Amino acid sequence: MKKILITGGAGFIGSHVVRRFVNRYPDYQIFNLDALTYAGNLENIKDIEDHPNYHFVKGDIVDEAFINELFLNYNFDGILHLAAESHVDRSIEDPLAFVKTNVIGTMNLLNAAKNQWKDDFTNKRFYHISTDEVYGSLGAEGLFTETTPYDPNSPYSASKASSDHFVRAYGETYGLPYVLTNCSNNYGSYHFPEKLIPLFINNIINNKPLPVYGDGNYTRDWLFVEDHAAAIDLVFHEGKNHETYNIGGFNEWKNIDLVKLLCQIMDEKLGRTSGTSQELITYVKDRPGHDLRYAIDASKINKELGWKPSVTFEEGLEKTINWYLENEEWLQNVTSGSYKDYYQKQYS
Ligand code: NAD
Ligand code: TYD
Protein backbone atom coordinates (compact mmCIF):
# COMPACT_ATOMS: atom_id res chain seq x y z
CA MET A 1 0.00 0.00 0.00
CA LYS A 2 1.37 3.40 -0.96
CA LYS A 3 1.70 6.13 1.62
CA ILE A 4 1.27 9.52 -0.01
CA LEU A 5 1.87 12.87 1.67
CA ILE A 6 -0.07 15.82 0.24
CA THR A 7 0.88 19.19 1.73
CA GLY A 8 -1.54 22.11 1.70
CA GLY A 9 -4.55 19.84 1.25
CA ALA A 10 -6.87 22.18 3.17
CA GLY A 11 -6.23 24.97 0.67
CA PHE A 12 -7.87 25.68 -2.67
CA ILE A 13 -6.01 23.44 -5.15
CA GLY A 14 -4.79 21.00 -2.49
CA SER A 15 -8.36 20.19 -1.41
CA HIS A 16 -9.25 19.20 -4.98
CA VAL A 17 -6.13 17.05 -5.23
CA VAL A 18 -6.78 15.35 -1.87
CA ARG A 19 -10.42 14.64 -2.82
CA ARG A 20 -9.38 13.19 -6.17
CA PHE A 21 -6.70 10.95 -4.69
CA VAL A 22 -8.83 9.73 -1.78
CA ASN A 23 -11.71 8.82 -4.11
CA ARG A 24 -9.69 7.37 -6.99
CA TYR A 25 -7.01 5.47 -5.13
CA PRO A 26 -8.53 3.48 -2.25
CA ASP A 27 -5.27 1.49 -1.99
CA TYR A 28 -3.28 4.61 -1.14
CA GLN A 29 -3.09 5.99 2.37
CA ILE A 30 -3.39 9.76 1.90
CA PHE A 31 -1.86 12.02 4.56
CA ASN A 32 -2.95 15.64 4.30
CA LEU A 33 -0.41 17.87 6.06
CA ASP A 34 -1.58 21.43 6.56
CA ALA A 35 -0.78 24.20 9.06
CA LEU A 36 -4.31 25.65 8.67
CA THR A 37 -3.17 29.20 8.03
CA TYR A 38 -5.86 31.72 7.07
CA ALA A 39 -5.99 29.91 3.68
CA GLY A 40 -6.47 26.43 5.12
CA ASN A 41 -10.07 25.38 5.62
CA LEU A 42 -11.04 21.83 6.61
CA GLU A 43 -14.60 22.53 5.43
CA ASN A 44 -13.09 22.28 1.92
CA ILE A 45 -12.69 18.53 2.35
CA LYS A 46 -15.31 17.57 4.87
CA ASP A 47 -16.95 15.24 2.31
CA ILE A 48 -13.97 12.86 2.43
CA GLU A 49 -12.73 13.27 6.01
CA ASP A 50 -14.27 9.96 7.18
CA HIS A 51 -12.77 7.85 4.39
CA PRO A 52 -10.57 5.09 5.80
CA ASN A 53 -7.66 6.02 3.49
CA TYR A 54 -7.64 9.70 4.56
CA HIS A 55 -5.62 11.11 7.44
CA PHE A 56 -5.26 14.73 8.49
CA VAL A 57 -2.06 15.96 10.13
CA LYS A 58 -1.91 19.53 11.44
CA GLY A 59 1.61 20.87 11.21
CA ASP A 60 3.97 23.46 9.80
CA ILE A 61 6.41 22.57 7.02
CA VAL A 62 8.75 25.27 8.39
CA ASP A 63 9.23 23.18 11.56
CA GLU A 64 12.23 21.03 10.61
CA ALA A 65 12.14 18.72 13.65
CA PHE A 66 8.43 18.04 13.17
CA ILE A 67 8.89 17.26 9.45
CA ASN A 68 11.82 14.91 10.11
CA GLU A 69 9.83 13.04 12.73
CA LEU A 70 6.79 12.79 10.46
CA PHE A 71 8.89 11.22 7.71
CA LEU A 72 10.54 8.82 10.15
CA ASN A 73 7.13 7.74 11.44
CA TYR A 74 5.45 7.23 8.07
CA ASN A 75 8.17 6.61 5.44
CA PHE A 76 6.14 8.12 2.60
CA ASP A 77 6.45 6.72 -0.93
CA GLY A 78 5.33 9.89 -2.63
CA ILE A 79 4.97 13.57 -1.84
CA LEU A 80 2.75 16.09 -3.60
CA HIS A 81 3.85 19.46 -2.28
CA LEU A 82 1.25 22.22 -2.56
CA ALA A 83 1.53 24.01 0.80
CA ALA A 84 2.52 27.60 0.20
CA GLU A 85 1.79 31.20 0.86
CA SER A 86 0.04 31.90 -2.41
CA HIS A 87 -1.24 35.47 -2.66
CA VAL A 88 0.87 38.08 -4.48
CA ASP A 89 -0.67 41.04 -2.58
CA ARG A 90 0.20 39.46 0.78
CA SER A 91 3.75 38.79 -0.44
CA ILE A 92 4.16 42.51 -1.06
CA GLU A 93 3.13 43.20 2.56
CA ASP A 94 5.15 40.40 4.21
CA PRO A 95 7.80 38.85 1.93
CA LEU A 96 9.55 36.98 4.74
CA ALA A 97 6.50 34.83 5.45
CA PHE A 98 6.79 33.66 1.83
CA VAL A 99 10.49 32.84 2.18
CA LYS A 100 9.76 30.83 5.33
CA THR A 101 6.97 28.64 3.96
CA ASN A 102 7.80 28.52 0.26
CA VAL A 103 11.59 28.23 0.47
CA ILE A 104 12.51 26.90 3.94
CA GLY A 105 9.39 24.72 4.11
CA THR A 106 10.19 23.17 0.73
CA MET A 107 13.81 22.65 1.82
CA ASN A 108 12.64 20.79 4.94
CA LEU A 109 10.53 18.46 2.82
CA LEU A 110 13.33 17.89 0.30
CA ASN A 111 15.80 17.08 3.07
CA ALA A 112 13.41 14.77 4.86
CA ALA A 113 12.65 12.90 1.60
CA LYS A 114 16.34 12.65 0.68
CA ASN A 115 17.29 11.35 4.12
CA GLN A 116 14.42 8.90 4.21
CA TRP A 117 14.97 7.51 0.73
CA LYS A 118 18.76 7.69 0.56
CA ASP A 119 19.32 3.98 0.02
CA ASP A 120 16.59 3.42 -2.49
CA PHE A 121 14.75 5.82 -4.76
CA THR A 122 12.81 3.02 -6.49
CA ASN A 123 9.13 3.90 -6.88
CA LYS A 124 9.63 7.12 -4.92
CA ARG A 125 8.62 10.54 -6.17
CA PHE A 126 8.74 14.16 -4.98
CA TYR A 127 6.24 16.29 -6.89
CA HIS A 128 6.61 20.04 -6.53
CA ILE A 129 3.58 22.11 -7.60
CA SER A 130 4.55 25.55 -8.84
CA THR A 131 3.34 28.51 -10.82
CA ASP A 132 3.87 30.14 -14.20
CA GLU A 133 4.62 33.40 -12.34
CA VAL A 134 8.26 32.25 -11.96
CA TYR A 135 8.75 33.13 -15.64
CA GLY A 136 7.97 36.80 -15.04
CA SER A 137 5.86 38.86 -17.39
CA LEU A 138 5.14 38.48 -21.11
CA GLY A 139 4.63 41.35 -23.52
CA ALA A 140 1.76 41.30 -25.99
CA GLU A 141 3.11 38.23 -27.81
CA GLY A 142 4.52 34.79 -26.95
CA LEU A 143 3.87 32.00 -24.45
CA PHE A 144 5.80 30.54 -21.51
CA THR A 145 7.41 27.19 -22.36
CA GLU A 146 9.34 24.84 -20.08
CA THR A 147 12.60 26.43 -21.28
CA THR A 148 11.60 30.06 -20.71
CA PRO A 149 14.21 31.56 -18.33
CA TYR A 150 13.03 32.30 -14.81
CA ASP A 151 12.49 36.02 -14.22
CA PRO A 152 10.23 36.44 -11.17
CA ASN A 153 8.99 39.91 -10.23
CA SER A 154 6.95 39.61 -7.02
CA PRO A 155 8.13 38.28 -3.65
CA TYR A 156 5.63 35.42 -4.16
CA SER A 157 7.03 34.41 -7.54
CA ALA A 158 10.63 34.89 -6.33
CA SER A 159 9.97 32.51 -3.43
CA LYS A 160 8.35 29.93 -5.72
CA ALA A 161 11.23 30.28 -8.23
CA SER A 162 13.70 29.70 -5.42
CA SER A 163 11.90 26.55 -4.29
CA ASP A 164 11.77 25.28 -7.90
CA HIS A 165 15.55 25.75 -8.17
CA PHE A 166 16.12 23.79 -4.97
CA VAL A 167 13.94 20.94 -6.23
CA ARG A 168 15.98 20.74 -9.44
CA ALA A 169 19.21 21.02 -7.47
CA TYR A 170 18.21 18.05 -5.28
CA GLY A 171 17.51 16.10 -8.46
CA GLU A 172 20.88 16.93 -9.98
CA THR A 173 22.98 16.71 -6.82
CA TYR A 174 21.42 13.84 -4.92
CA GLY A 175 19.43 12.09 -7.64
CA LEU A 176 16.13 12.84 -5.89
CA PRO A 177 13.34 11.63 -8.20
CA TYR A 178 11.25 14.75 -8.72
CA VAL A 179 8.66 16.11 -11.12
CA LEU A 180 7.72 19.78 -11.27
CA THR A 181 4.78 21.59 -12.83
CA ASN A 182 4.23 25.28 -13.45
CA CYS A 183 0.56 26.14 -13.79
CA SER A 184 -1.41 29.22 -14.77
CA ASN A 185 -4.11 30.94 -12.67
CA ASN A 186 -6.69 28.51 -11.31
CA TYR A 187 -10.36 29.18 -10.58
CA GLY A 188 -13.18 27.03 -9.19
CA SER A 189 -14.87 25.97 -5.97
CA TYR A 190 -13.31 26.43 -2.50
CA HIS A 191 -11.20 29.37 -3.71
CA PHE A 192 -10.44 31.81 -0.90
CA PRO A 193 -12.20 35.13 -1.61
CA GLU A 194 -9.05 37.22 -1.78
CA LYS A 195 -8.15 36.21 -5.36
CA LEU A 196 -9.81 37.95 -8.30
CA ILE A 197 -12.65 35.59 -9.26
CA PRO A 198 -13.98 34.49 -5.82
CA LEU A 199 -13.49 37.99 -4.36
CA PHE A 200 -15.51 39.56 -7.13
CA ILE A 201 -18.25 36.89 -6.96
CA ASN A 202 -18.55 37.54 -3.22
CA ASN A 203 -18.56 41.31 -3.72
CA ILE A 204 -21.21 41.15 -6.42
CA ILE A 205 -23.44 39.01 -4.17
CA ASN A 206 -23.02 41.61 -1.40
CA ASN A 207 -23.20 44.69 -3.65
CA LYS A 208 -19.68 45.75 -2.73
CA PRO A 209 -17.17 47.57 -5.02
CA LEU A 210 -15.10 45.51 -7.46
CA PRO A 211 -11.54 46.89 -7.13
CA VAL A 212 -9.86 46.57 -10.55
CA TYR A 213 -6.13 47.28 -10.29
CA GLY A 214 -4.71 49.91 -12.65
CA ASP A 215 -6.45 50.08 -16.04
CA GLY A 216 -7.56 46.43 -15.91
CA ASN A 217 -5.62 45.59 -19.06
CA TYR A 218 -3.60 42.84 -17.40
CA THR A 219 -3.89 39.35 -18.85
CA ARG A 220 -4.08 35.99 -17.09
CA ASP A 221 -4.47 32.46 -18.49
CA TRP A 222 -7.27 30.76 -16.51
CA LEU A 223 -7.61 27.04 -15.78
CA PHE A 224 -10.47 25.24 -14.03
CA VAL A 225 -9.09 23.81 -10.79
CA GLU A 226 -10.46 20.29 -11.38
CA ASP A 227 -8.53 20.19 -14.67
CA HIS A 228 -5.41 21.17 -12.75
CA ALA A 229 -6.07 18.36 -10.25
CA ALA A 230 -6.45 15.91 -13.16
CA ALA A 231 -3.14 17.11 -14.63
CA ILE A 232 -1.45 16.70 -11.24
CA ASP A 233 -2.77 13.13 -10.97
CA LEU A 234 -1.43 12.36 -14.46
CA VAL A 235 2.00 13.89 -13.89
CA PHE A 236 2.36 12.18 -10.51
CA HIS A 237 1.65 8.78 -12.07
CA GLU A 238 3.02 9.11 -15.59
CA GLY A 239 5.38 12.09 -15.71
CA LYS A 240 9.09 11.44 -16.22
CA ASN A 241 11.52 11.99 -13.38
CA HIS A 242 13.52 15.23 -13.50
CA GLU A 243 11.04 16.78 -15.95
CA THR A 244 9.05 20.00 -15.81
CA TYR A 245 5.59 20.35 -17.38
CA ASN A 246 3.71 23.59 -17.96
CA ILE A 247 -0.04 23.41 -17.32
CA GLY A 248 -2.46 25.97 -18.71
CA GLY A 249 -5.82 26.38 -20.33
CA PHE A 250 -4.88 28.21 -23.56
CA ASN A 251 -7.41 30.64 -22.17
CA GLU A 252 -6.23 34.23 -21.90
CA TRP A 253 -8.46 36.96 -20.53
CA LYS A 254 -7.84 40.62 -19.87
CA ASN A 255 -8.93 41.28 -16.29
CA ILE A 256 -11.48 43.90 -17.29
CA ASP A 257 -13.08 41.64 -19.93
CA LEU A 258 -13.28 38.78 -17.44
CA VAL A 259 -14.81 41.04 -14.79
CA LYS A 260 -17.44 42.30 -17.26
CA LEU A 261 -18.34 38.71 -18.24
CA LEU A 262 -18.60 37.79 -14.56
CA CYS A 263 -20.87 40.78 -13.92
CA GLN A 264 -23.12 39.82 -16.84
CA ILE A 265 -23.51 36.19 -15.70
CA MET A 266 -24.05 37.22 -12.07
CA ASP A 267 -26.79 39.69 -13.09
CA GLU A 268 -28.58 36.85 -14.91
CA LYS A 269 -28.17 34.41 -12.01
CA LEU A 270 -29.25 36.93 -9.37
CA GLY A 271 -32.16 38.21 -11.44
CA ARG A 272 -30.74 41.73 -11.53
CA THR A 273 -31.15 44.15 -14.42
CA SER A 274 -28.35 43.79 -16.97
CA GLY A 275 -25.55 46.27 -16.16
CA THR A 276 -26.24 46.40 -12.39
CA SER A 277 -23.07 44.58 -11.29
CA GLN A 278 -20.84 46.47 -13.76
CA GLU A 279 -21.68 49.63 -11.84
CA LEU A 280 -19.71 48.15 -8.93
CA ILE A 281 -16.45 48.23 -10.95
CA THR A 282 -14.01 50.64 -9.30
CA TYR A 283 -10.57 51.33 -10.75
CA VAL A 284 -8.06 51.44 -7.90
CA LYS A 285 -4.32 52.04 -7.43
CA ASP A 286 -2.26 49.47 -9.29
CA ARG A 287 -0.42 46.59 -7.62
CA PRO A 288 3.33 47.41 -7.44
CA GLY A 289 5.36 45.36 -9.93
CA HIS A 290 2.15 44.10 -11.56
CA ASP A 291 2.99 41.51 -14.26
CA LEU A 292 1.34 42.49 -17.54
CA ARG A 293 0.60 39.11 -19.04
CA TYR A 294 0.88 35.39 -18.29
CA ALA A 295 0.16 32.73 -20.93
CA ILE A 296 1.18 29.09 -20.95
CA ASP A 297 2.18 26.85 -23.82
CA ALA A 298 0.83 23.52 -22.52
CA SER A 299 1.77 21.48 -25.59
CA LYS A 300 4.39 19.34 -23.82
CA ILE A 301 1.96 17.85 -21.29
CA ASN A 302 -0.59 17.47 -24.07
CA LYS A 303 1.76 15.63 -26.46
CA GLU A 304 3.66 13.55 -23.91
CA LEU A 305 0.93 12.69 -21.40
CA GLY A 306 -2.27 13.37 -23.35
CA TRP A 307 -3.66 15.98 -20.93
CA LYS A 308 -6.01 18.73 -22.02
CA PRO A 309 -8.60 20.79 -20.16
CA SER A 310 -12.01 19.09 -19.95
CA VAL A 311 -14.14 22.24 -19.81
CA THR A 312 -14.22 25.52 -21.68
CA PHE A 313 -13.83 28.71 -19.67
CA GLU A 314 -17.53 29.51 -20.08
CA GLU A 315 -18.46 26.05 -18.69
CA GLY A 316 -15.94 26.28 -15.85
CA LEU A 317 -17.02 29.78 -14.88
CA GLU A 318 -20.68 28.76 -14.89
CA LYS A 319 -19.91 25.77 -12.62
CA THR A 320 -17.88 28.04 -10.33
CA ILE A 321 -20.55 30.72 -10.02
CA ASN A 322 -23.24 28.09 -9.42
CA TRP A 323 -21.08 26.54 -6.69
CA TYR A 324 -20.65 29.86 -4.87
CA LEU A 325 -24.36 30.62 -5.11
CA GLU A 326 -25.24 27.15 -3.80
CA ASN A 327 -22.64 27.31 -1.03
CA GLU A 328 -23.23 30.71 0.49
CA GLU A 329 -22.74 29.17 3.93
CA TRP A 330 -19.15 28.24 3.00
CA LEU A 331 -18.59 31.81 1.84
CA GLN A 332 -20.17 33.23 5.00
CA ASN A 333 -18.05 30.98 7.24
CA VAL A 334 -14.90 32.10 5.42
CA THR A 335 -15.72 35.79 5.51
CA SER A 336 -16.86 35.70 9.16
CA GLY A 337 -13.83 33.64 10.19
CA SER A 338 -15.93 30.87 11.77
CA TYR A 339 -14.31 28.26 9.45
CA LYS A 340 -11.40 28.41 11.87
CA ASP A 341 -13.49 26.56 14.50
CA TYR A 342 -13.88 23.46 12.31
CA TYR A 343 -10.57 21.86 13.36
CA GLN A 344 -11.43 22.34 17.05
CA LYS A 345 -14.86 20.78 16.54
CA GLN A 346 -13.71 17.77 14.52
CA TYR A 347 -10.22 16.97 15.74
CA SER A 348 -9.76 18.11 19.34
P1 NAD B 1 -3.91 28.27 -0.91
O1 NAD B 1 -3.33 29.52 -0.35
O2 NAD B 1 -5.36 28.19 -1.20
O3 NAD B 1 -3.58 27.04 0.06
C1 NAD B 1 -2.34 26.85 0.64
C2 NAD B 1 -2.47 25.81 1.74
O4 NAD B 1 -1.17 25.61 2.32
C3 NAD B 1 -3.41 26.22 2.88
O5 NAD B 1 -4.26 25.14 3.22
C4 NAD B 1 -2.47 26.57 4.01
O6 NAD B 1 -3.03 26.34 5.30
C5 NAD B 1 -1.30 25.65 3.74
N1 NAD B 1 -0.04 26.17 4.30
C6 NAD B 1 0.46 27.43 4.18
N2 NAD B 1 1.61 27.54 4.86
C7 NAD B 1 1.87 26.31 5.40
C8 NAD B 1 2.91 25.81 6.20
N3 NAD B 1 3.94 26.58 6.60
N4 NAD B 1 2.87 24.51 6.58
C9 NAD B 1 1.83 23.71 6.18
N5 NAD B 1 0.81 24.15 5.45
C10 NAD B 1 0.81 25.45 5.05
O7 NAD B 1 -3.05 27.97 -2.21
P2 NAD B 1 -3.48 27.35 -3.62
O8 NAD B 1 -4.01 28.44 -4.46
O9 NAD B 1 -4.31 26.14 -3.37
O10 NAD B 1 -2.07 26.93 -4.20
C11 NAD B 1 -1.53 25.63 -3.94
C12 NAD B 1 -0.18 25.51 -4.63
O11 NAD B 1 -0.35 25.67 -6.03
C13 NAD B 1 0.83 26.56 -4.19
O12 NAD B 1 2.09 25.95 -4.11
C14 NAD B 1 0.79 27.59 -5.31
O13 NAD B 1 2.04 28.24 -5.44
C15 NAD B 1 0.50 26.71 -6.51
N6 NAD B 1 -0.22 27.36 -7.63
C16 NAD B 1 -1.37 28.06 -7.38
C17 NAD B 1 -2.05 28.63 -8.47
C18 NAD B 1 -3.36 29.37 -8.26
O14 NAD B 1 -3.90 29.93 -9.23
N7 NAD B 1 -3.95 29.39 -7.06
C19 NAD B 1 -1.56 28.50 -9.76
C20 NAD B 1 -0.37 27.77 -9.95
C21 NAD B 1 0.28 27.20 -8.89
P1 TYD C 1 -4.94 37.24 -8.41
O1 TYD C 1 -6.22 36.49 -8.37
O2 TYD C 1 -4.44 37.88 -7.14
O3 TYD C 1 -3.84 36.26 -9.02
P2 TYD C 1 -2.31 36.58 -9.52
O4 TYD C 1 -1.89 37.89 -8.97
O5 TYD C 1 -1.55 35.45 -8.89
O6 TYD C 1 -2.36 36.52 -11.00
O7 TYD C 1 -5.05 38.39 -9.49
C1 TYD C 1 -5.42 38.11 -10.84
C2 TYD C 1 -5.37 39.40 -11.61
O8 TYD C 1 -6.42 40.27 -11.11
C3 TYD C 1 -4.09 40.18 -11.42
O9 TYD C 1 -3.76 40.84 -12.65
C4 TYD C 1 -4.42 41.20 -10.36
C5 TYD C 1 -5.90 41.49 -10.61
N1 TYD C 1 -6.68 41.84 -9.42
C6 TYD C 1 -7.47 43.00 -9.43
O10 TYD C 1 -7.50 43.75 -10.41
N2 TYD C 1 -8.19 43.29 -8.31
C7 TYD C 1 -8.19 42.51 -7.20
O11 TYD C 1 -8.86 42.84 -6.19
C8 TYD C 1 -7.39 41.31 -7.22
C9 TYD C 1 -7.34 40.39 -6.02
C10 TYD C 1 -6.67 41.01 -8.37
From TrEMBL:
- UniProt entry tagged with the keyword Lyase: yes
Concerning InterPro entries, the annotation shows:
dTDP_Gluc_deHydtase, NAD(P)-bd_dom, NAD(P)-bd_dom_sf
Instruction: Write the Enzyme Commission number(s) for this entry.
Output: 4.2.1.46
In this chain the NAD(P)-binding domain maps to 5-320
An individual GO BP term: nucleotide-sugar metabolic process
Instruction: Give the GO molecular function terms.
Output: dTDP-glucose 4,6-dehydratase activity
Which reactions is this enzyme annotated as catalysing? dTDP-alpha-D-glucose = dTDP-4-dehydro-6-deoxy-alpha-D-glucose + H2O
Pfam family name, one: GDP_Man_Dehyd
Names of required cofactors: NAD(+)
Q: Which domain of life is it from?
A: Bacteria
Keywords linked to the UniProt accession: Lyase, NAD
Coiled-coil residue windows: none
Q: Which family does it belong to?
A: Belongs to the NAD(P)-dependent epimerase/dehydratase family. dTDP-glucose dehydratase subfamily.
Protein name, please?
dTDP-glucose 4,6-dehydratase
Biological source species: Flavobacterium cupreum
Q: Which gene encodes it?
A: rfbB
